[in-house]
Amino acid sequence: MQKILKYTWRELRKTLSAEQTFYLVLAFIFWKYQAERKKGDNKRFNREAFEKAFAEYPKQVPEEAVRRLAEKIDWNSGQNNLDIKSSINRFGEWIESLFHNPVKLTPEYSDNKELYQEFGPALQRVLLLLNETVTLASEEGVYPATPASAQKLIAELFKEQPILKAADLCCGTGLPGLNILDAISGKWEEIEYYGADRDDIFCSIAKILLWETGIPKGKIECRNLLDPPEGPGEDFDFVFMDVPRGRNRGEFWERDDVRLERFNRKTVYSDWIFIKEALYQLNENGRAAVLVTPGALIRANEKRLREQIFLNDWLECVITLPAGLYPGTSTGTELMLFCKKKQPARQNKILLADISQYSIKRHNNISEITHEGIEAAVKCLREYREIPDICTILTKRNINLETYSFKPMQYIRYGSQRQGGETFALGDISEIIRGSQTLPKEISPEEGDALIINIRDIQDERVHYQTADKISCLHPACKEKFRIREDDILLTSKGAVIKSAIVETPPPEAFASGNITILRTNREKYDPYVLFEYLNSSQGMLELEKIQSGTTIRILNNTNLKSFQVPAYDKSLMEKIGSRLKRNRKTYFQKLKNLEEDYNKERNILNGLLKEEGEHETEE
């Protein structure tokens, strides 16, 4: 099935855009299934035939949705281009054979003869075709569908949960939500289904799909979920939401929005409006599955909202999924599971799990969750206890009260982590100074008396002053608090890769930019060179990565750094080792400098001999 559909897709893409191919293939599959159901003419595929196939069901089929999808298709190209017609005809012949070949029925069809007679195996094949079509469209950026492996994970986590009333918010085409509901219960005919999305064409597709699957209590509504609700919540048992990617930005929220009561910031990122919408729609016993990017778990702007969730005890579980699940981005994904009424043993607790290592790469460098990863997540939720390297339990005792972070990596104890022993918070042993934020994004070269240190000036654990921009010492960035000193540790505060350097000798007049954080260690409590070695160790780097925030741009903020834990050592031992580390480092770089000078000196001599030989031959 996949091979033939992909072949047809590639053939159509030679002439049509990805968007046109998506709409054309969807309409064709819908039309072919209608023709199969009513045993009508299924040979001529054009706009008239497509709309006519649904016209016989005026009380059931949303005519506006059919017309809306038809309007999105360039029918003239399909009729006038022989290659397109040929590809569509071959695809149609293959679908016909697919409809009529025997199929092993799934239990929900074989156990319900009436349902089988109405829809039969053809519906199963249609759904498979539609899912594959949506996957192809997702890979080309037309429709960012929820990854199939994420759908499987959610279904397994909610397996056999009684659901009478379900909502699929930001539903898109509706397929992911219906797939999840089908895998959870398999009893579509008993579920009252509601889908909502702001995109009218996807809502139209969802309406047609909903009718073709025969859900008797289904409804699709086209509305912007960021707008304040006009009435009370809908009292759903289950809510699924894949928060739209690429649209997350600060919104000036309306003060009468009941979902954001007691929120005290001017703006709120849209992902948290979506999260609060999901909670608003749940009944007092309801559960929700919400897919978000990592920023929602740690962003300082929404700390108050995370605190409310924690105090209300509505968050049951957070699972870190593998990165790269969605085409075109390596951004991570977090699955938040909410429950308005937890089991007594789970009250005032949040399970934090990390299955990011359970991934495999498919074509186009897209990741998917492995079967082992899904099993690991289900085990964590079922047992609801700490499992080293995979999950832990978050309570009032161990949550970071400064951030109310829900990021699993910040709390899970990994096997490589130093076990036992005392630790110090970085904020207790070091002054943490974020560099100056007053600089423009680009600095015009000027002959100033001072240097401004940026990310590019930190290489090989050293500060390279020769690459730094020069600025006037009168510039607002040249305040004494931003001036770097000997034995300061410099950390890059932005970027996926964390770089660091230690200032070895009294530096020139140099100041840290806003992309740099200065760690100025209190020598009475800790040695800067011992701290520098830990931060640059594999364990230290792992721990630093765990406290980074942000999705597109990774950030090390001062709040997280203050609570960052470092190993505690005997003070006298640290002094001895620290002085030796400093001396050893100085010796290493001096020898390296001498070797480089000797190398360049010898190189110049040899090149000079070659030049003399060339000049001698020219004279002859």
Automatic annotation (TrEMBL):
A GO biological process held by the record: methylation
Catalytic activity: a 2'-deoxyadenosine in DNA + S-adenosyl-L-methionine = an N(6)-methyl-2'-deoxyadenosine in DNA + S-adenosyl-L-homocysteine + H(+)
Positions of the Type I restriction modification DNA specificity domain: 422-568
Domain of life: Bacteria
Keyword Signal attributed: no
InterPro entries named among the record's database cross-references: DNA_Adenine_Mtase, DNA_methylase_A-5, Restrct_endonuc_typeI_TRD, Restrct_endonuc_typeI_TRD_sf, SAM-dependent_MTases_sf
A Pfam family: N6_Mtase
Keywords: Coiled coil, DNA-binding, Methyltransferase, Restriction system, S-adenosyl-L-methionine, Transferase
GO terms for MF: DNA binding; N-methyltransferase activity; site-specific DNA-methyltransferase (adenine-specific) activity
EC code(s) of this entry: 2.1.1.72
Residue intervals of the DNA methylase adenine-specific domain: 136-414
Coiled coil: 578-612
Family annotation (PANTHER family): SLR6095 PROTEIN, TYPE I RESTRICTION ENZYME MJAVIII METHYLASE SUBUNIT
Family: Belongs to the type-I restriction system S methylase family.
Protein name: site-specific DNA-methyltransferase (adenine-specific)
